[in-house]
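Before surveying the methods themselves, let us examine one representative protein, pairing a chain with its fold in token form.
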Amino acid sequence: MRSVAYDGDVLVVGGGIVGLSTAYAITRAAPGTRVTVLEKEAGPARHQTGRNSGVIHSGIYYRPGSLKARYAVRGAAEMVKFCAEYDIAHAVTGKLIVATERAELPRLHALVQRGRENGIPVRELGAAQIAAYEPEVRGLAAIQVGTTGICDFVGVARRLAEASGAEIRYGAEVVGVDRRPDLGVAVRTADGDVVRGRVLVNCAGLYCDEVARLTGDEPGMRIVPFRGEYYTLARPGLVRGLVYPVPDPAFPFLGVHLTRGVDGSVHVGPNAVPALAREGYGWGVVRPRELASTLGWPGAWSMARRHWRYGAGELRRSVSKRAFAQAVGRMLPAVTEEDLLPAAAGVRAQAVLRDGTLVDDFLIKEGARAVHVLNAPSPAATASLPIGREVARRALAVLGSV
């Protein structure tokens, strides 16, 4: 084995936007470093990256000083610049966060303070001022966040793949990892190929915990998949831009919102319901092994006991279009069930600790000859450029020490 040449210096598992941003950052920071990206699908960005709202988040929601706050604020500006430089569809639209009940007003005001602490320009609006931005939207108060935008994240991922200079191997599903601290990492793919490198970077998203364990590192968490179901608004003229409810701070989900995309269509959603498979984009997709893995994790049960009321509401909106329309109607009274046309769903890779805590920040850990990205759901697409640089910094540090 000592005489076998390495196929690359760094092996990146996962061809979503975080994995491709990492490859891009490595080759920018250390020209000449050989990077190989292993992606199980036939092309990039087929899962979380390509199945989200396409929103460039401002960073207003996230705890000041957290990785999410710092990387989202920085990443939003960088993403707009990247899209402009490479002629990728995007727009800085701003958005409204709308309070429709008095109980939400303190949380709305807290968001104003949080936004200011994160360096984000925020404008407070009274009920009468909302109509100037969104004539069909109703609420007691709102805040307008000017730095929020939209873009084509799949287009960004493709451009990162091209610009990185990395070797991208599609159809390369990782099924085994042989790590030798004195030699390197050998990865076996489903078709029987073996790819050897000096350092492994795990950006496997929905399967990041499994890849960590294949490597021999215990991640201390498990991915619990949550499906986000969307509709397309049949009357897109009802909404000019982006409209969000006031989120519940106990959860990392933002609630059902309305998002006008770069193609002019308006997405409505997502909710957040447990998926029966890691790529469970519908109730009919069930993978017993993956479901058993979720149910066998103590944290999944602790989480369910703690948040069952919230979960019951999400399930109700999943099985009842009327309930979904009612949730949207709190902000957009003109919407009807007939306005909601089914659209593609997404699945969020949510890290859950053994005690049932939902990890609320990006989580990156290191092992021998390995760097693992273990929690990178929204706003990871927005923050992908700074996340990629951080992961690249760690990978290059590991590479320099071996």
